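User: Structure please.
Assistant: Input sequence and predicted structure:
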Amino acid sequence: MNDGTFSRVEKSSETMYGPRGILACGYSKEEQTVLRSVLEEIQMKDIPVKFPADNDASKTLKAILEETETGQSDFSSLRRAVIMSGLTQEELHNLIASHGKSSLPQPLWASLTPISESWALKDLLETLAREHAAMKRRGDKFR
């Protein structure tokens, strides 16, 4: 996302913006375990994964990514989404493809940007949901 718009991510070894990490929102404890297994299968288990809870909704993405806690959390009512930070473009594509082959329901996908890092998590999730609905209405193909 860039100022609320999408930009295509290539398949290169270039590292994307931000500290290395993944924010996985709206996953049950069982799904959190499955996601960690997916990451292990694609040699990405070293990436810190955070599972924001409802009380994280007003925090900025940057603040959540900077927190040291990376353990599992209770299920939250946050919209299901995966926000990636500091991954290579290849890792992003591998994660999206492997997630799609797993038993996990499809999330909304985003990557951290210099603009979005200052957004509250709830604001990013609302924006992603609106963009997803607009793409669906237009008939765009997406995961």
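The beta strands are 21-25, 49-50, 81-85, 108-111.
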